Amino acid sequence: MPPSPQGDGGQSRPPLLEIVVPAYNEERRLPGGLLQLCAKLARMPFPAAVIVVDNNSTDRTAEIVENWPAGPVPVRLIPCPVPGKGAAVRAGLLETGAPFVGFCDADMATDLDAIDAALGLLLSGERVVVGSRAHEGSVVENRHSRVRELGAAWFRALAGVLVPGVSDTQCGFKFFDGVLAREVAALLRTPGFAFDVELLARCAADGSEVHEIPVRWLDVPGSRFSPARHTFGIVLEMGRIWLRLRPRPRARPRPAVHPAWEPPAAPDPVGSP
Ligand SMILES: Nc1nc2c(ncn2[C@@H]2O[C@H](COP(=O)(O)OP(=O)(O)O)[C@@H](O)[C@H]2O)c(=O)[nH]1
Ligand SMILES: [Mg+2]
């Protein structure tokens, strides 16, 4: 058999980068998405791997991943019994062990060339690198309905309170230092679509700056998100995140000494004038 670009198929060396792809009933979009992702990662000069996380999809999503042909980029499936994109990404991140990790959507709406920029920044010491469709260098082709656009504007306003300074919390393209991602994922409690806000807020609380990068983003038809079905849940999730992570007034430090108490004056040294 001819050697693969990574000599051993990239599978005997542990991956430097692992990418989690949450997938729910994605039999139509996942095959094309995985092909693109694997092709991109196979061209990178280091081993990488993909973890697809399925929530009991009722279509062929799991079967597609289980039968994914072996290649230079290993693709494995993990099931997540807790429903929701947030629960799936959390489960996937906790399965990783690589120095650098990330996640992206099954539709690969974010152009994968942004992986180069993300990894370059992680290698230079950034710990959280996320795609932002609001970045002035981004190119965005959006076909969302007016209702969804209105909801998104409202969501951004709320998210701005929880993660100040981040212009787009919801782009499904986020990369991290692996140790940080696993620590933060273990704390995540938001199972649904608002989980990105909790994730970024916890990274910021850890002292890690969120570095936003420009992306080329194309809305791909077939979204799992429905404003009618998901809006109420998102409002609840945002409320819960706020309750958990809101800045609490610091307890006033107790004075070391009671203010009314003053040390007794030292007795005059004997013999002083
Ligand atoms: N495992 C899992 N993945 C989900 C769930 N909901 C959404 N996703 C995945 O999250 C990603 C983004 O979803 P998408 O429908 O494209 O949302 P949109 O881009 O915000 O419209 C896709 O890979 C979906 O399959 C879920 O409940 N479970
Ligand atoms: Mg999408």
UniProtKB/TrEMBL annotation:
<dbReference type="InterPro" id="IPR001173">
    <property type="entry name" value="Glyco_trans_2-like"/>
</dbReference>
<feature type="compositionally biased region" description="Pro residues">
    <location>
        <begin position="261"/>
        <end position="273"/>
    </location>
</feature>
<dbReference type="InterPro" id="IPR029044">
    <property type="entry name" value="Nucleotide-diphossugar_trans"/>
</dbReference>
<protein>
    <submittedName>
        <fullName>Glycosyltransferase involved in cell wall bisynthesis</fullName>
    </submittedName>
</protein>
<dbReference type="GO" id="GO:0016740">
    <property type="term" value="F:transferase activity"/>
</dbReference>
<keyword id="KW-0808">Transferase</keyword>
<feature type="domain" description="Glycosyltransferase 2-like">
    <location>
        <begin position="19"/>
        <end position="162"/>
    </location>
</feature>
<dbReference type="GO" id="GO:0006487">
    <property type="term" value="P:protein N-linked glycosylation"/>
</dbReference>
<feature type="region of interest" description="Disordered">
    <location>
        <begin position="253"/>
        <end position="273"/>
    </location>
</feature>
<dbReference type="Pfam" id="PF00535">
    <property type="entry name" value="Glycos_transf_2"/>
</dbReference>
